[in-house]
Amino acid sequence: MLIEVARPLRVRVGSFGEHRFAAGRYIYTGSARRNFAARVARHLRKEKTLRWHIDYLLAAPGVRVVGVRRYGEDECAINRATPGGVAVPGFGASDCRVGCGSHLKYLD
User: Fold this and answer.
1) What pLDDT digit, counting tens, does each position of 1-52 carry?
2) Cα separation of 102 and 85, whole Å?
């Protein structure tokens, strides 16, 4: 998922705490192995129960999804092959077992 953050933000990400997000583009890799279309539609809604780390970021003002791409490979393999730096350590990677560090990367 390609995400644009219009201006710098501080977002409370549930029990994960408050984090700073610079303005720019981010890439988020998630599993969504089942019901891909429903999961993406849920993420695109502004009104929803905030459950996953990405929900908190996407619900913030000035944040929008500008592209979604589906891959057949594992989310961690895609994440490792994606350019960018770790935006917030541990973000979206609570269940990661291969040490990605974060499933949200900052591009620019």
Assistant:
1) 999 999 999 999 998 999 999 999 999 998 776 788 888 888 888 788 999 9
2) 9
Asked whether the CA dihedral 29, 33, 35, 36 is positive or negative, the reply is positive
Best CA proximity match to 11, nearest among 54, 49, 75: 54
Amino acid in the structure at residue 40: V
Element (H, E) at 54: helix 53-58
Q: Is 86 left (phi over 0), alpha (psi -120 to 50) or beta?
A: beta
Cα–Cα–Cα angle for 73, 92, 72, nearest 5°? 10
Please give the angle made by the CA atoms of 78, 83 and 89, to the nearest 5 degrees. Answer: 80
Claim: this prediction has a pTM higher than 0.85: yes
| Structure tokens, 76 | 């961690």
Query: Which residue bears the tokens 């996953």?
Result: 52
Q: Residue 70 burial by CB count (10 A; 0-12/13-18/19+): exposed, middle or buried? A: exposed
